[in-house]
Design a protein that fits this description.
49% of the residues lie in helices and 17% in strands. The chain is rod-shaped. Strands 4-3-7-6-5 form a five-stranded antiparallel beta sheet. Strands 9-11-12-14-13 form a five-stranded mixed beta sheet. The protein has a two-stranded antiparallel sheet with strand order 1-2. By secondary structure, it is α+β, with helices and mostly antiparallel strands. It is built from 13 helices and 14 strands. Helix 9 crosses helix 11.
């Protein structure tokens, strides 16, 4: 029978969804308040029954002490009433004395006096004898728990030496021991113990709820800074990435707030980079797109095939420049957003990477009538790096050198290493006009162009080089070409220093 849609169990759809889609059930979030409360109350609730049990045992011990002293006094009184007359043990207790001994409002009192041979002299026959190992020395009184007629009793007992009592002791006299026992039921003791327990336990039933309330209040007050921090964070604007004031939170929460501030700083930096990338991309794309639009409109208005061809050729050059600009912007964004901890670094032979990159640029050097050469050491040079990013770094240096080097001149890419400083060195030198010393601090800025160079470019190549070098913890130095002899063309030498792996371990890894 089909059930109405509103009558189904609310948990059934969730269970079915997990079983159909294989989703992991959502874990229940733990409450910090509840967990602290549990760890505080659990020991308290466990110790409370133990406290009651210990209190009961202590109360019984306290209740036994005065009544045991009364039993001991009774035994001493009875021992004074026992005499030996003509070899026979007799008691001198009168009937009123017996009545006083047995007088008790709550308990039943019993006594027993037995002679030397174990004969009953006076008292209750049903009282059992003490065990032989529990037999005290004459004059001492001991206590034991026993049962009489199915009722628990407390017994005080001792032995008296009749010879000493009658002042007849001597070296030839043997001891005549008489047993005296006084017992009573446990009603008075139970009443006193219960009163003690009530006096101790009943206040706890009042104190415990108050303690729980105070614990609850203390936890609420102690965790209130977390709630205030939560409110302050929620009250922020969505674009507010300023640091959280760590002076307004407790010391225990300060590390958490500092971590949040570090995360906010990284997030702010990432957003700033993205905004800057978008702004730069929009600004730089306006010029080639406007040129492409003008060339396309001009080609549409032309009727001469040569003019149309010229316009299309300019349109092709503009699209090529726009494509390169977009690729450089994407490379720069990728280099800026790639943290060193997330890079896929591996051991690279710098010489092999540089040789392969130079080979890719040989056609471009031929087209510009430039001699592109490569020099390397005989030994492998190993560094940790990202091969794709390092190829992009070297490609931008070669492209920059080709653009600024006049026709008929040369460019040399060189790899070397410095064993003393444990550095791997990548050099790109040219015979171009060089870079003035005053401009060398600015050429790595994005879209920066040296005035009067008349060289087409986006101004992003060296910015990409700097970002990739920073990602690899490398240092860039710029000097004039020391090998150039023509004063009109001082040339330029870009030198990038990487940290070198130990040579012995490198040979094992590369071999």
């Amino acid at each position: 029978m089909n059930m109405p849609s509103g009558a189904e169990d609310a948990t059934a759809p969730r269970v079915q969804e997990h079983s159909l889609h294989g989703q992991i059930p959502e874990k229940i979030q733990r409450s910090l308040f509840g967990e602290i409360l549990d760890w505080m109350l659990a020991p308290l609730l466990l110790l409370w029954p133990m406290s009651i049990a210990i209190t009961y045992l202590v109360a019984k011990s306290i209740a036994n002490q005065p009544f045991d002293r009364a039993l001991e006094d009774n035994v001493l009184v009875l021992s004074q009433q026992v005499k030996e007359v003509d070899g026979k043990i007799v008691t001198q207790m009168s009937n009123p004395a017996r009545d006083i001994l047995r007088a008790d409002d709550l308990d039943s009192v019993y006594f027993q006096i037995k002679g030397v041979s174990g004969e009953l002299v006076d008292g209750d026959r049903e009282l059992s004898l003490p065990l032989e190992e529990d037999k005290p020395t004459p004059g001492n009184i001991m206590f034991r728990n026993d049962r009489l007629r199915g009722i628990d009793i407390r017994v005080a007992y001792g032995y008296i030496d009749l010879n000493r009592a009658n002042a007849r002791s001597g070296p030839n006299k043997t001891s005549h021991l008489a047993l005296i026992q006084v017992a009573e039921t446990l009603e008075k003791r139970a009443v006193l113990a219960n009163e003690i327990i009530k006096g101790v336990i009943l206040p706890q039933f009042i104190i415990l709820p108050i303690a729980l309330a105070l614990v609850w209040f203390a936890l609420s007050r102690g965790l209130s800074p977390l709630a205030e921090l939560q409110q302050r964070i929620r009250a922020r604007r969505p674009d507010d990435l300023s640091p959280i004031d760590s002076h307004q939170v407790p010391e225990e929460i300060t590390p958490l707030v500092r971590s949040l501030n570090e995360m906010l700083a990284r997030l702010s930096q990432t957003i700033s980079i993205q905004k800057r990338f978008i702004a730069d991309a929009a600004h730089q794309m306006k010029t080639p797109l406007a040129g492409m639009r003008m060339q396309s409109e001009l080609a549409l208005r032309q009727t001469d095939h040569e003019e149309i061809h010229r316009s299309l050729l300019q349109l092709s050059k503009s699209s090529e420049a726009a494509t390169r600009l977009i690729n450089q912007l994407l490379t720069l964004a990728r280099a800026e957003n790639q943290a060193p901890a997330t890079q896929a670094l591996e051991i690279i032979d710098l010489s092999n990477l540089a040789r392969n990159t130079v080979q890719d640029w040989i056609p471009a050097s031929f087209a510009n009538q430039i001699d592109l050469g490569f020099e390397q050491t005989d030994e492998p040079i190993g560094i940790f790096g990202n091969p794709l990013m390092l190829r992009e770094l070297l490609s931008n240096l070669i492209d920059n050198a080709i653009r600024y080097t006049p026709k008929g001149h040369s460019i040399t890419v060189r790899t070397a290493f410095n064993k003393e400083q444990a550095l791997a060195i990548l050099e790109v030198e040219d015979n171009g006009p060089g870079i003035p010393a005053s401009e060398r601090e600015h050429i790595f800025e994005r879209f920066y162009r040296i005035l009067g160079s008349n060289v087409q470019g986006s101004g992003l190549g060296l910015s990409i080089v700097r970002e990739i070098a920073q990602q690899h913890d490398a240092k860039i130095d710029i000097t004039d070409n020391p090998r150039n002899q023509d004063p009109r063309f001082p040339g330029c030498l870009f030198s990038i220093s990487f940290k070198l792996n130990p040579y012995e371990s490198l040979m094992g890894d590369l071999g």
